[in-house]
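wait is this the right file?? whatever heres the structure
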């Protein structure tokens, strides 16, 4: 297992209003359910209001999906946006308080390691949200070939039916 890729957000958290950015290029090696043709590329930025950490970004990749009609692989370009907000607790060091601000752990704790964002996890979750439900290999895809005589009844009982027919002929 490789080391997690982190986006250090401490500068933004300790100085509200200060924007930090990260140029992203990742293949999401840990993600086995998304088939990428090219790396996810783009930019993610973060800024703190003092109480909320806002993370935004615009990213692009190409994924392989299955054609909804014929099940052949289809390469689908995917442009997507990231917009997340996380609560901040503590007083920012930039206020001269001697304290520090940090992202409040909650149900999103899996995305943070201290004041650093595990940005591949954020990207992985957002790709799933932006991926189309279905794709076509071409607009006029005819779909799977349908047999001339469709089976009658439930497929799992067809074998049993053929066994019973054979027994009646011998009978």
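ok assuming it is, sequence goes like this
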């Amino acid at each position: 297992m490789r080391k997690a890729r982190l986006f250090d957000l401490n500068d933004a958290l300790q100085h509200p209003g200060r924007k930090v950015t990260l140029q992203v290029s990742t293949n999401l090696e840990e993600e086995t359910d998304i088939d990428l043709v090219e790396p996810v590329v783009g930019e993610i930025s973060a800024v703190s209001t003092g109480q909320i950490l806002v993370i935004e970004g615009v990213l692009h990749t190409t994924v392989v999906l299955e054609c909804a009609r014929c099940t052949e692989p289809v390469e689908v370009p995917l442009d997507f946006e990231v917009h997340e907000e996380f609560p901040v607790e503590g007083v920012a060091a930039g206020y001269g308080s001697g304290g520090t601000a940090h992202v409040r752990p909650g149900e999103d704790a899996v995305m943070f390691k201290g004041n650093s964002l595990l940005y591949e996890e954020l990207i992985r979750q957002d790709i799933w949200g932006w991926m189309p439900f279905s794709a076509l290999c071409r607009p006029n895809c005819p779909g799977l070939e349908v047999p001339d005589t469709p089976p009658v009844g439930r497929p799992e009982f067809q074998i049993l039916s053929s066994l019973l027919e054979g027994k009646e002929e011998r009978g």
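Residues 158-170 form the longest helix (13 residues). so i think its the right one actually
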